[in-house]
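> example.struct
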């Protein structure tokens, strides 16, 4: 979960592009509470790099914090943007 000013600032689009560049799979979606939720799978070093970049996100974003938790592995082939939950 990414918190802060992360909706309406192209955070999801940035997430998709960044994750794909790093060879990661997963998904990202807006949450009704104003946050952004993402599931990121792949090489541990690439995930670490993604997490470092996600602290800033796109230029208009203002990330206040990121909550990380382990999640079950999903059978995913790419990184996609999903509908708001």
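> example.seq
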């Amino acid at each position: 979960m990414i918190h802060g000013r992360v909706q309406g600032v192209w955070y999801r689009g940035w997430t998709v592009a960044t994750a794909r560049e790093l060879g990661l799979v997963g998904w990202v979606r807006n949450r009704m509470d104003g946050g952004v939720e993402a599931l990121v799978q792949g090489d541990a070093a690439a995930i670490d790099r993604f997490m470092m970049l996600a602290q800033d996100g796109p230029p208009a974003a203002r990330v206040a914090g990121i909550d990380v938790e382990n999640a079950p592995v999903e059978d995913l082939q790419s990184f996609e943007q999903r509908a708001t939950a």
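> remarks
The first strand starts at residue 2 and ends at 5.
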